[in-house]
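To close the chapter, one final illustration. This time we ask the reader to focus less on the individual chains and more on the assembly as a whole: which components sit near each other, and how the overall shape emerges from the parts.
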Amino acid sequence: MSVEIQIQSLLKTNQLSVTDSRSKILELFMATSGAIAHGDIEKKTGEKFDRVTVYRTLQTFVDKGIIHTIPTADNTVLYALCKDNCTEGHHHDHHVHFVCELCGKTSCLDAVVVPEVNLPKAYKVKQVDVVVNGVCKECN
Amino acid sequence: MSVEIQIQSLLKTNQLSVTDSRSKILELFMATSGAIAHGDIEKKTGEKFDRVTVYRTLQTFVDKGIIHTIPTADNTVLYALCKDNCTEGHHHDHHVHFVCELCGKTSCLDAVVVPEVNLPKAYKVKQVDVVVNGVCKECN
DNA sequence: GTAACTGCAAAATATTTGCATCCTT
DNA sequence: AAGGATGCAAATATTTTGCAGTTAC
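The assembled structure is written out below.
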């Protein structure tokens, strides 16, 4: 299945019409291993989408559970594709994100198992994000 | 030791002059169990510090390792006191933060042990943040 | 054809910088 | 007294909102 078809069906599955900006932005996510900042999108797509369109597209994708935001220690806004199990309004990812303090890149470490967090029973856990800061394998 | 003296010595230890805004903001942190957003400071201190002063004070505290930022999924900026082991430029906290999706409060779960994250050896880990989303014990 | 999406303009919000004044040491 | 901290003004940057024109279905 070609990437274009993949993108189209992903959009249709989420009851979203297939538009140029959505397709291109989604394509960027699928071509990128790590996380994407809002600012990256205008640069890396080559396309010149309106800043507002980018904001709205990202918000739509988050709402639909296609992408999720990544909490970062330096409080920049990052987005990444959801792997699976995400439904509208509920993300069930248990992510490990690694932020390299040298190259600044954030990557999802899919191979790393997120350890169980043992909270008191009174808490209901919906999502666990683990953010690791340090030096990545490229910079080490 | 009174709180005032504690605050003063903490500031002096970090080579910071003891000023009204720093004392009051630090006092707020020490009186608050959870995390504090920038906006909370103008409200909760009762004092009216200039917004710029608050920005600069928070940044100074972060630089000195007195407080640290908390990554949040909704990309608001939160700050909390560092427990210990923080030195200038390097935070060694292994935090568990809990964000309640009902009341919106973020709290540090000091009692919860941060599990070990097993990364490939090529990575150097400096800090691990665990952010748990869900419903807290008060709202459950 | 209709509902939804986009782009532009502008408003609202958040953050940073320069500089004169005031406060801490 | 000297250096640093504050507050004000203003410059930037970021995000949101309204609306008219355009596009997907």
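The two ends of chain A are 37 Å apart (CA to CA). The longest strand of chain A covers residues 124-135. With these observations in hand, you are ready for the problems at the end of the chapter.
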